[in-house]
Design brief:
This protein is an alpha+beta fold and 292 residues long. It has 9 helices and 11 strands.
Length: 292
């Protein structure tokens, strides 16, 4: 092997990072952990490359901009733009040195800054609510009410936030009963979305069927066991729906067997659909086992 080729290989090895590790290598587990962290950072508005640069600086920094784009294989101009963006968001700092080296804040401090920024966005939007409502109401409604306005409605929902916000609204407005049919994985999503927090104190009839299951998950045990039954004989875990007051239904077409951003549900106030699913629930309730 020539000296030139040897030098190139050494340069390549020198620039390898945990992001380049292959399955079976001692660094691969760390790569998977960092991929999970990157996925969480994306939820706060960072792009994939921004998250990658932040992680690189946090684990390998302080580094110069050339160090970053060489190690991560990013375009030079994009790297400078990303670093400036991360600085403006307050999660990357620059040293007063030549050449300039950049460092990432600790993950604890970074999460605090990103969360505070999201809270500020929500507060700003909340302050605009009254103004938007006032502007909306100032414009006259030109639609003419007809009998068509009484037709049954249907709404498509995708992703955890949209679906569980809808379910929370159904729980909070229920007056007579609230029925849940789902697998252990589905109920875990309900738990982490705080759906169960209001159910134990509710004055309406709550019934839950866990299918398939052999035992009741611990996080559901705060609810009266007389309200919960299990169906260990079910061969599928892709059925999940909720019913409110025999007036609303939300059915998962893609439930917790899919990633949280890929779950899909349909909400409707269709009376025939609600009656059919209510009959299915009642039949399943009779066939299910009582929790002991």
């Amino acid at each position: 092997m020539s000296i030139e080729n040897s030098s190139k290989m050494l340069d390549k090895e020198k620039n390898l990072t945990v992001f380049d590790s292959d399955p079976g290598s001692h660094m691969y587990d760390n790569k998977m952990r960092l991929e999970k962290i990157k996925g969480e950072l994306l939820k706060f508005g960072l792009t994939s490359n921004q998250a990658k640069v932040y992680i690189f600086l946090g684990k390998f920094g302080p580094k110069t901009a050339p160090d970053v784009f060489k190690a991560l294989g990013l375009p030079r101009t994009e790297t400078y733009y990303i670093i400036n963006t991360l600085q403006s968001r307050g999660i990357v700092t620059a040293e007063l040195s030549s050449p300039t080296r950049y460092s990432a804040l600790s993950i604890e401090r970074t999460m605090s800054i990103l969360i505070d920024a999201e809270k500020e966005k929500i507060n700003t939007l909340a302050k605009q609510q009254d103004e938007i409502s006032e502007l909306w109401n100032a414009v006259p409604t030109l639609a003419i009410e007809t009998i068509d306005d009484e037709k049954e409605k249907l709404q498509m929902l995708q992703g955890n936030p949209q679906i569980f916000t809808k379910i929370s609204n159904m729980v909070n407005t229920a007056r007579e009963e609230f029925l849940i049919f789902g697998s252990v994985k589905d109920l875990s999503r309900f738990y982490h979305s705080n759906i169960f927090d209001t159910l134990p104190n509710s004055i309406f009839n709550v019934r839950i069927i866990v299918s398939p299951a052999h035992t009741v998950p611990e996080y559901v045990e705060k609810i009266d066991k007389r309200r919960i039954k299990i169906m260990p004989t079910s061969k599928t875990d892709n059925q999940c729906f909720v019913l409110k007051d025999n007036r609303e239904i939300l059915m998962f077409l893609r439930n917790a067997t899919h990633p949280s951003n890929d779950i899909f549900a349909v909400w409707s106030d269709s009376k025939p659909l609600i009656d059919a699913m209510h009959n299915l629930f009642d039949y399943s309730w009779e066939e299910a086992s009582v929790c002991r």
